[in-house]
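Bug: token stream looks shifted between consecutive jobs. Job 1:
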Amino acid sequence: MTKLKFLILPAALMLVGAATGAAEEIPFPDGYRGWTHIRSAVVGPTSGAFKRFGGMHSIYANPAAMDGYRSGHFPDGSVIVFDNHETLAAQGAEFPGRRRFIDLMVKTDGSWRFGEFAGDSRSERNVTVAQGETQCAACHAQSPTDHVYSRYGP
């Protein structure tokens, strides 16, 4: 019986470790439009980024992320939101149309986690945290400023 205990305990610990090792999803960033607006831009059809990021986007940062924009090093708790809309043109001007997605970057334990919400949904995800590790992290690792491409200010 003692030998059986020695086999069961490690197996149980491995199962618990596997269950808790799953990436916890990033919650929807309620109130993000009240955070600091970093900048907005339009990615048009002639841009190489149009297929993925085409449309009008605005970037918002929570107070912790603002410390990072100022210093170049983003502390844990930093949250950056990339809010992307279709672009509508009318009377010589462009306006945000239907929301395409909301991308998120969240700094936790010294590492960035990525996710994406579909359209106006607060629960449907186009990109989970696990998918973001492969779809987003490699590109953002190339940024010279702590995985963040956007800049604050003029």
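Job 2, same session, no restart:
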Amino acid sequence: VSRAAELMSSHKLHTLPVVEGKKVVGMVSRIDIIRAMNR
């Protein structure tokens, strides 16, 4: 979670893909990261 937050912050991204192998299986947003960090 912290690595995703770093990537989003340093590259000014709002979402990141969730990848399994070479397949995108989902997306993670800034709000997803905030919620995960608050747990």
